[in-house]
Amino acid sequence: MSYRTNLFSKMVILILIMLVPVVLLYWYSNHKTTAVLRDELNRSNSNQLEFFQNQVNTHIELLSSWPNLLIHDPDIASFRRIYADSKYFDLDTINLVKRIQNKLSIQESSSNWTTKLYLYSPTLGRVISERDAGYYDQQTLRGNISSGWNVRKIQDGQDDRFLFSWITVSPYGINDPAANAQTVIKLEFDSDNIRDMLDKFKDDGRHDPFYYREETGVIYNRTSDRVLTGQLMDKLAIDKLKDVDNRTVVIDGEPYMVNTVKSSTTGWYLVDYMPLSAILKPIHQSNILFYSAMICLLLMSFAVAYLLYVQVQVPVKQLIRGFQRLKQEDYSVRITPKGRNEFSFLSERFNSMVAQIQQLFEHVYLEQIHVREARLKQLQSQINPHFFYNCFSFITSMAKLKRVDAVVAMSHNLSRYYRYTTRQERDVVPLTEEIEFVTCYLEIQQMRMDRIRFKIDLSEDILRQEVPPLIVQPLVENAVIHGIEADADAGEIRVSGEQRNGMMILTVDDDGHGMDEQARQMLLHKLTGGMDQEMGCGLWNVNQRLQLRYGDQAGISITESPLGGLRISLSWPAAEKHLLE
């Protein structure tokens, strides 16, 4: 049984497998229902806003047609042809003005909106309204004449009102109508008319409708929440509104469904909004009930799983930990039985088994240590005959050539070699002694071959490392025999080392003919197997001793050397005292 897939985990996973699909299906169904409800509400709200907007537009378009009708009235046409030399009208003109005022009054009374009509005569410099006839400021009129509806803000206490005006000029298209037109008719109404309609619209069930135009202002209903509406306008001003728009706006963490319809007549947006919480409240209550039931069911399931965990999983985990410590060769592990059940019986039998294994290993372990030490000594001793054969062969050759100096030098180095190799009782030696021994060997080979040049580049920290004896010399000998002797143009050997990522790396390079990639891989493969007759014991012996002493992370690597020949590297974990330094 795996610790990561124990009984308790399986039970919890099984509970989740049963409950999660139910929750996900409910969530998906609820999500789709909410989406459909939102779409239907948006569609319904947009239709109601468009209907109300059409009503307002109809009133405004009707009002804008009045000046076009009045400008063709006979009395107004007669008033257009009057030219007065004095500032007082004669009796006929006064009667004409009264008839015009009566017609303006009748026209204003034809609508339930509060409106005002003004008749301007630029030739007379006079203006006629329902109740008055007098002079006007031509410059003020000139500033009010524009195409379409002109909207002017009027400050009324703490509230803003807007004055809408529509001006018709006769004849149409004349330059500077305020001075040159025959007749100018202006219609005015203020935003209280629209506010009255908004109040009625709100009484019909809308939340808080208002009119909004970014460069002009806002027409509120009389019971509007001004603060919330202001925050909403700030949100709407960020993105450009469409002619018919539906969006969700979040204000102070509360989402609001906002519907807008643009008036094609005035360019104002009719906006209405409502909190989604009020719309989705029944669905949220249903969700709370469902999720509460799921949580209760989940808690009950966890309680049952916990009981099984305490009664079954805890004893099983104790047995697992015991076996894991036993696997790590900790034979002192014991389990304390709890209660009197099947698991206490297993715990007692486990303790008995471990005690017997511990006794057995105490006897066998010492024998294994002796066998391991014997093998290390045997591998270490294999290196010596191989080197002796080469040295004696060299002495014989030098004696035949009557090279007394070489024989003396070799004999002197052999005496130093004897002193080094007779300390076979030592498992490790300082690397500095091993390098001195390698230097002696290279000096002997240098006598035999003048073209041999060598360089040893090792820091003091590396030289203080302790290594198994006779572990570097076989690499150097391999470079001389297989690298330099086989290539008449070769002669350089370099020994270097470094400490990297907690590992000591010692490298021997030569400039011989080297080996191709396939040959290098084949040699590395042979080093990991048993020694055969075709392969010398030098490299194999070094690799085996490194791995026996330092483990699998130590060993030999063979690559192409920057000198052109072969690079053989030894790597082993650095001693802790040198890492601390």
From TrEMBL:
Presence of keyword NADP: no
Family annotation (SMART domains): HAMP
Ranges that cross the membrane: 7-28, 288-309
Localisation: Cell membrane
InterPro entries found in the cross-reference section: Bact_2-comp_sensor_kinase (IPR050640), HAMP_dom (IPR003660), HATPase_C_sf (IPR036890), HATPase_dom (IPR003594), Sig_transdc_His_kin_internal (IPR010559)
A GO molecular-function annotation: kinase activity
CDD domains: HAMP
Keywords linked to the UniProt accession: Cell membrane, Kinase, Membrane, Phosphoprotein, Transferase, Transmembrane, Transmembrane helix
Domain HAMP: 310-362
Membrane topology: Multi-pass membrane protein
Main localisation: membrane
Entry protein name: Two-component system sensor histidine kinase YesM
UniProt organism field: Paenibacillus pabuli
Organism ancestry: Bacteria, Bacillati, Bacillota, Bacilli, Bacillales
